[in-house]
Structure formats: C-alpha cells, structure tokens
Design brief:
The structure holds 2 protein chains of 2 kinds. Chain A is an alpha/beta fold. Chain A contains 18 helices and 20 strands. A 7-stranded mixed beta sheet of chain A has the order 14-15-16-13-12-17-18, with helices on both faces. A 6-stranded mixed beta sheet of chain A has the order 9-8-7-10-11-19, sandwiched between helices. Chain A has a 3-stranded mixed beta sheet with strand order 1-5-4, covered by helices on one side. The radius of gyration of chain A is 27 Å and the shape is globular. Chain B has a single domain, classed as Aldolase class I (TIM Barrel, Alpha-Beta Barrel). Chain B is an alpha/beta fold. Chain B starts with a helix and ends in a 12-residue tail after the last helix. Classes of the chains: A alpha/beta, B alpha/beta. At the A-B interface, helix 1, helix 2 and helix 12 of A face helix 2, helix 3, helix 4, helix 5 and helix 6 of B.
Chain lengths: 519, 322
C-alpha cells in the first residue's frame, strides 16, 4: 500500500487525453463452430466431499416390536437384518412380527381406543400431537441421517423435504383434533376405532406421519407396519411417542414381512386399513377386505405424464422435469415418469435434459452435495435394470449421467429414454426408478389423450405460460393431483390420492380427515 | 400533444440496418418466458451446495481473479484510484497465493489515472463505466463521446448502461441500435452492457434485454449499476446465464456475465460460482467470461482465504482497504 501512495505516476499532472478514438472497428467476438457448441461439465472446480457426520448416532444392534407402549421381542423369535443400500453394510437386526404379535398389538390398540384415546377430548389429543411434532423438529437431524442411512435417500432431501413435512403433518393435524365438528359442519364426526396401516419404503417416516397424524387427530388408535427394508425411523418415532407420553397402545409398530401385513389386514378387530404401496399388493388387500366391515383406502402406483408445451418457460420446465423424475431416485409414486413434449420444442428439450443430468451428483447419500442417492433395495434395482434393458430391446435410446458409481451398494444413474412410443413397456409400466420416458405430442387434445392413456391416475404436470390452457387441461386430466408449472409439491393441507389403479381415498387436508371418521 | 410525445419518444433514431461495428440490424428476438417461482427455486438450490476445504479455497481464489474492484463515487480522486489499483494488483500478502483481480472499475474521468498507475501491462484491466452512468438519461451523442474518451484514455473495458426508458416503452430497436453504436466506438475495448435489472423488474424483461444486448454485440452482460436496489441477485443472474446459454447454442458466441452490487461475502460469491458451474459449465469459470462487480467483497474473501490457510480468523485491520 505504501508503494501505491507514493507512486509518482498517480499524482503527476494528467496528460492530455488521447482524444476521440479513430474509427477502429471493434474486435469481433470469437464464434464456436456449430459442431463444437456444447457445454462442458467437467471438474475444473470440483466440490470436496461434504459428508454429514453420523458417528455420534448409535444404532442398537437389535430392534424389537413396539406394542402397548413398550418394546417387546417378537413371538416368532425371528429377526432379519436391515442394511444400508448405499454400502450394503448391515445396520441392525429387526424383529419379525407373527400373527400372535399382530393380535397383541390390535388388542392393545382396541383397549387404548375404548379406555383412553377414544373418550379423550379433542383438545387433549391435540396437545399430544403438538408435542410429538415439536420433538420431531428437535430431533430432525438425527431422523434425517437415519432415514438416509436406512433408505439410501440423499441427506439433502431427508433434511430439507422429508423431515420438515413430517413435522408439518403432525402440526397440521394437531390443529384439527379439537375442531372436527367445524371441519364437517352439521355432522357428528366419530373415530373409526382401530386402524391398520401399511407403509412403503420410499418415504418411510413421511408416510408414517401421513398415516398416524390424521388417525390420531380423529381419535383412532393405530397398528402400523413399515416396509421390511426401512423400519428404523418408524421405530425411532415410537421412542418419540414414548417421550411425548402418548398413552400406551395408541400407536403400535409391527416390523416384519408381507405376511405380517397380511395378518394385520385379516385381523377381525381392525376397523380400517390404510395402505400405500404397489398396485399389485393393493389389489390383494382390496380382495382381503372385500365382504368385511373394514374400510380401506389405497394409495398405489403411478405413471404420471409431465406435459411440456412449446409456450412453456422452457428453462424452468426442465427443472420441473428433473425434479419430477429424479427426486428420491424416482422412488415416488407420483413421479413424472412420462415426459410428453410438444414436437416443435422436442430437440431443445432433449438437449437441455442431456446437459442438465450431467450436473446431477450421484453417490454417497450422506454427502450434502449428493442429488441422487442409492436405489433402496436390490430387488428394485433388478426391476429397473430389466425395464431399461427392455426399453433398449424395443428400440429406445438411453441417455445417462456420465459418472462413476460406488463399487458397493445399489446404484442406477439418472436416465432418460428417447425414441419411446406409447406402446413401449417403459411408457406403460411403473419403473419406480430414476428413468424417464420421453415422448411427443402435437396438440393439447393429443396431450390430454396420451396423458390419460394409462391404467394409473395419481398425478400429472402441465407446463405452459398460458393460464387458460392450464385450466382446460386440469379439468380433463384424470389424475388426483395436477401440478401446473411446478412438480412434486406437497403440503399437509392438500389432499393427495389417485384415480383408477392409483387407488382411492385421499390423504391430507379435509378429505384426508374424512377418511378416518364416521360422519 | 400527440406530436410532442412522438417527438420525445422517437428522436433522431439511428438507422438500424448495418452498424459500423458490424452488428447486424435489429430483429425482434423471440420472447422467452421465465417462470418466476421455478427460477427462484432453482437459484436457491445453488446456495445449498456445501463447499468445503480445498474446493472452498480454490473457489475463493477464483472469485478474487474474477473481481472487478470498483469505486464509483462522486468523491473519487486519483488518490483513491491509486489505493484501488494497488489493491487489485496484489490483494493480499504473497504467502496466501491470491491472484490479482480481473480489473478496476472507475468513472471515465478516473480512467487515465488508473491507466497510469497500472502501466501498460494488462494484468489488471481498466474498466470504465460510461454512457451517462448510472441513469443513461443523456443524449446519445454525449454518451458516445464519453465512450470514445474513456477508451482513448486507456480503458480496456466499457461498462455501459442501456436506455431503460426506451426498453420500457417497448422501443427495443432503439435499445439495440444504441448498444451497437456504442460497441462501434469501443474500438478494441470490451463492452459490458448493464441492464439495471432492478429497474426492469420482471425476469421476462431481463431475459429479453439480455438477448437484445447480446444480439447488438455485448461481450458481457451485467446486472446492475449498484446504484439501484435490488442489484445483483442469484435468480436474476440465473436468468441472464440461461439467456447466455441460449445465445451460445444459436450463435456459437460465448458472452460473459457480470453480477454487480450486493454481493458482499464469500458465501454469496461461492453460490454464484456454483451457479455458473452448473448452468454454463467449466468454460465460463474464467475471468474472461465471468466477473464480480464489487468493492467490499474482496476483503471478506481474503479473510476466508487467510482462515483456510492459517486455520484462524484475523481481524479486519490485517487486511488493507482498497
């Protein structure tokens, strides 16, 4: 700095200006040849690993069932191992509940319903739910890390999406507990009784919240069974219920296999079944409950169309397409797995998708910069591979993120398939993985027809800057949720559920409450 | 009255066929819509990247090398410009391995002093704001004269402002013609076109103005003068980067980007780098194609670099003022 201040040059009298420039033509900007016009997503500046630490979170070597407010060993004496799908390292042993355990749990739930929870005034039930919501918020980091280790989801998503939504569902339903008569004016809403709930592995804790919070708010008691591959966070939630002082038996957690779920559905003293999972299992459960007094709601598979019109804000539409299919490795029942692009912008959209998937970071789910984590289980990975291979065999072209995948664990890179028609298997069957089928259409009428041409009807997306077109499509798309210029947005106030083979019944909002009430 | 308005709005229009600078005549660009909600959501996602250790150090050094160290005050003097130039040449002690800044950015009357101080080597460029900065509400003739003089005084880069009244009146041809005319008198100097996004307000406007500026010959497009709030934001910069991407694919020309104003700390600056890396890729991670217009940012970056190097924070008095 000293040097600068004493510089003679600076303080000497200014020289006369060089004056107006002579007519110099400006330097032309260099032009890249058409063939070389591509973006280069290399590692000129690579991000260092940023793993979330988890050493301070002990995971018990063995997990028992949660029945009547206590952790108890299973009557079967059986345990199965739960692994981290990103490393294939065993995390813990999980109890397998048998029919006897199911019976114990349902009895505990019935007792809690008739003696404590059913008669309890709504505002008291609400207090418990608020308390649970607050403890979830306090322990959200722990739960997010566990969810990531158990299910392979990126920590960015469990931390920023799953856990905030879990807490939000408890907060939202806590508010309804003492206002049910206002929710359904002129009627006299009553709880159903004991509710059996079966949830999937794609959003383990969030699905538990979707199920437990409205059931409890409405005065029901619960027996809930998580998927075999993701039991950990629900068992941690059971600890939170204990911590919140929830009366014994109000919520019971039965870990186990498909047989455990079947036993729960068959149990004669269950008043309602709420299931989220595959269409195949959903149909079986519908058959099992047919002819009984049991109510049932099903939230099943999907093959959502994401419709991009030429007049959409394309750069933002691409983001929505990416979020729609690669969120949670595509393990999302409402994933936008069929991309319908108006033919006039097809080339542009494909080029942008190609560039965009190169910037997706695939790898260690605990790394805070990971966008796409591990496939949840080996069976699912096999299914994804089989369907993509089938797509190729049927003539589709595969475009994938060029990246190295970890040696251990279950991985599938973000993928999209072009050259797909409506008759390809990849365009009809739910892949439930990070795989997008790209197709085209010409007119709005064709878009509607093609979007509806599926046995499913859970969700759809519309991308256009024209509001009138949005309203027209929303009214004609047979899907439970239609997102306009956004995708995969969830909120406890908004009902969610399907048409056709995507199930029936709604979860969330007033409609969701209604499914847990007699009124 | 109508005649009077006409006379005010469309005075002495430049002929927009072929400009002396070689830019083709104005053709209205296809309007490209921007969805505000999704653009802001995407921009926010870049701030959630976790930049640690080696990547952070490398990123912060890159930030310094991309900085247009700026002083734009009515009270600027040759003395103040000298402080600025010296700081740009050597921002920190040599031991920290910090590169020099990309440029100093000054008012036209200060160009000659900056040039004199920096000498003829072109390590640190001299950038001059011009064209009636910051409002641009001056006759074209004098704006052109300013550019000629700044360039003649030794400016390597000209940061012009667009004619916002013309843009908001929908007279896009006029905006184009003026940029092309200014480009024509820039000579060898690079032209940065300031859109003043805080006055254009909508992302649709920003996207359109970006395209007009690039069509008219801009080497860089720049968000703001720093005199209007909001200045640079992540979403507005994203919209401009997307316009640059579209222009590159259509023409093969790589246009640079300069967010200016409001970027005050290292964390913000790194989020911008993340956005460039993930939107335009490695080719744009260079001072030739990305700049930060800032003054207070530099010392915050240097403090972070010192902490990463020494393992502890130092007080602000250990870092010289520009």
């Amino acid at each position: 700095m000293k040097k600068a201040r004493t510089s003679k040059a600076t303080f000497s009298a200014p020289a006369p200006s060089r004056g107006a420039a002579t007519a110099v033509t400006h330097t032309a900007r260099p032009v890249v040849s058409e063939r070389a016009r591509s973006l280069n997503f290399g590692n000129k500046w690579d991000y260092a690993p940023a793993p979330e630490s988890h050493d301070y979170l002990p995971i018990a070597p063995r997990h028992d069932l949660f029945i009547d407010g206590e952790f108890v060993p299973p009557s079967t004496g059986d345990y199965f191992s739960s692994i981290n799908p990103a490393t294939e390292v065993k995390l813990t042993d999980i109890a397998r509940a048998g029919e006897q355990d199911v019976d114990l749990a349902v009895r505990a739930a019935r007792r809690a319903f008739t003696e404590v929870w059913g008669p309890m005034p709504g505002r008291e039930r609400g207090k418990y739910l608020y308390r649970i919501a607050r403890i979830i918020q306090e322990r959200s980091r722990e739960l997010a890390i566990l969810e990531t280790m158990d299910g392979g989801k990126p920590i960015k998503e469990t931390r920023d999406i799953d856990l905030p939504l879990v807490a939000a569902h408890f907060f939202y339903h806590a508010g309804w507990a003492d206002k049910l008569t206002y929710a359904f004016p002129g009627r006299d809403p009553k709880p159903l009784g004991v509710v059996g709930q079966i949830i999937p592995w794609n959003f383990p804790l969030l699905m538990a919240a979707w199920k437990i919070a409205p059931a409890l708010a409405c005065g029901n008691t619960v027996v809930i069974k998580p998927s075999k591959s993701t039991s950990l966070t629900l068992l941690r939630l059971a600890e939170i219920l204990q911590e919140a002082g929830l009366p014994r038996g109000v919520v019971n957690v039965l870990t186990g296999t498909g047989d455990t779920g079947t036993a729960l559905v068959k149990h004669p003293d269950v008043d309602k079944i709420a299931f989220t999972g595959s269409t195949e299992i959903g149909k079986q459960l519908a058959q099992l409950t047919a002819g009984t007094k049991k109510r049932i709601t099903l939230e099943l598979g999907g093959k959502a169309a994401n419709i991009v019109f030429a007049d959409a804000a394309l750069d933002q539409a691409i983001e929505g397409v990416i979020a729609g299919i690669y969120f949670n490795q595509g393990h999302v029942c409402c994933a936008g797995s069929r991309l319908l692009v108006q033919e006039s912008v097809y080339a542009q959209v494909v080029q942008r998708l190609r560039d965009r998937i190169q910037t997706l970071r695939v790898g260690n789910p605990l790394d805070k910069n990971t966008d796409v984590g591990a496939i949840n289980n080996s069976a699912q990975l096999e299914k994804i591979r089989e369907l993509v291979d089938c797509g190729v065999a049927e003539g589709a072209t595969v475009v994938q993120t060029q990246c190295s995948l970890p040696a251990k664990g279950y991985w599938f890179p973000p993928t999209f398939l072009t050259g797909v028609t409506a008759s390809h298997r990849v365009a009809r069957e739910e892949i439930f993985g990070p795989v997008l089928a790209v197709m085209t259409f010409r007119t709005p009428e064709e878009a509607i027809e093609r979007a509806n041409n599926t046995p499913y009807g859970l969700s759809a997306g519309v991308w256009t800057e024209k509001g009138s077109k949005i309203f027209k499509l929303v009214n004609q798309l047979r899907a439970g949720v239609v997102w306009a210029n956004t995708f995969n947005k969830f909120d406890p106030t908004s009902p969610f559920g399907g048409y056709k083979e995507s199930g029936f019944g709604r979860e969330g909002g007033l409609h969701g409450l209604h499914a847990y009430l007699r009124c | 009255m109508a005649a009077a308005i006409k006379a005010r709005v469309v005075p002495e229009r430049m002929v927009s066929s072929v400009q002396p600078g070689g830019a083709a005549g104005f053709r209205a660009p296809n309007p490209v819509s921007v969805d505000q909600v999704m653009a802001e959501e995407r921009a926010a996602a870049f701030t959630r990247r976790s930049i640690k250790s080696g990547a952070k150090l490398a990123g912060l050094r890159m930030v310094v090398s991309m900085m247009d160290l700026t002083t734009l005050e009515g009270k600027d003097t040759p003395g103040k410009v000298a402080y600025l130039c010296r700081k740009a040449l050597q921002p920190a002690d040599e031991g920290y391995g910090v590169p020099h800044c990309a440029a100093v950015c000054v008012y036209p009357n200060m160009v000659r002093y900056a040039r004199r101080f920096l000498g003829d080597n072109d390590q640190v460029k001299v950038a001059s704001v011009a064209t009636g900065f910051p409002s641009g509400q001056y006759p074209l003739r004098t704006r052109l004269e300013e550019v000629r003089r700044a360039q003649g005084d030794g400016a390597d880069e000209i940061d012009m402002v667009i004619d916002r009244p013309a843009f908001l009146l929908g007279d896009h041809a006029r905006v184009f013609d003026e940029i092309a005319a200014i480009k024509a008198v820039c000579g060898p100097a690079h032209l940065k076109v300031i859109l003043e996004t805080g006055e254009l307000v909508t992302y649709d406007n920003v996207r359109l103005a970006s395209r007009i500026a690039m069509d008219a010959g801009a080497d860089f497009i720049k968000t703001s003068t720093g005199k209007i709030q909001p200045a640079a934001t992540l979403p507005v910069t994203l919209v401009m980067l997307e316009a640059i991407r579209e222009f590159f694919f259509e023409t093969g020309i790589r246009v640079g980007m300069k967010p200016a104003g409001g970027i005050r700390n290292s964390k913000q600056a790194l989020a911008y780098l993340v956005m460039v890396k993930e939107t335009l890729g490695d080719d744009w991670l260079t001072p030739d194609l990305f700049r930060f217009g800032a003054s207070t940012l530099l010392n915050d970056v240097l403090m972070q670099i010192a902490r990463l190097t020494d393992g502890r924070y130092q007080g602000s008095d250990y870092f010289s003022l520009p």
